[in-house]
Amino acid sequence: MKTSSVVLSLCAFVTFSGAAFAGDAFNVSPAQTSALEGTAAPVSAVKGSMLISANGSRLAQVYRVGADGSAQIIIDGKLVTVPAASLSISGGKLTTSLTKSEVLALH
Fold first, then answer.
1. pLDDT for residue 17
2. What share of the chain is helix, strand, coil (3-state, %, to 5)?
3. For residue 61, how far is the Cα from the chain centroid?
4. Can you tell me the distance from the alpha carbon of 59 to that of 56, in angstroms, rounded to the nearest whole number?
5. Alpha-carbon dihedral 63, 68, 69, 73, rounded to 10 degrees
6. Sign (positive or negative) of CA dihedral 26, 27, 31, 33
7. Residue 56, SS3?
8. Which helix (H) or strand (E) holds 23?
9. pLDDT of 32 above 60
10. What is the mean pLDDT of residues 19-41?
């Protein structure tokens, strides 16, 4: 009984202290926000992740990742390389700024 109460107390401490640090780490001032708008860190595709099109529809799973971080997918029976420059993370999902028809035109 004593061991379980120690473990429970430790879990509560870690949870609440982590929440306090997370809140401080993600506060961004309006000046910092405007400075960051329009800039994005390069995103590299991850094999097996789902690639989402510009309009939010699922395109395909990433089949292979190019040396430059581009995503190779198989769509409509064709191997297509989606440029790394068009990739971003939106809502936690790998997203391209291209539509499905634009991706198909890359082939």
1. 45
2. 35, 25, 35
3. 14
4. 9
5. -30
6. positive
7. coil
8. helix 2-25
9. no
10. 42
- What is the C-alpha separation between 93 and 54, in angstroms, rounded? 12
pLDDT digits (tens, 9 = 90+) for 69-79: 999 999 999 99
pLDDT at 78: 94
According to the model, what pLDDT value does residue 13 have? 44
HSE of 100 in the Cβ direction (CA atoms, 13 Å)?
10
Give dist(CA 79, CA 63) in Å, integer: 9
Q: Is 61 exposed, middle or buried (0-12, 13-18, 19+ CB in 10 A)?
A: middle
Residue type, 22: A
Could you count the other beta carbons within 10 Å of the beta carbon of residue 7? 10
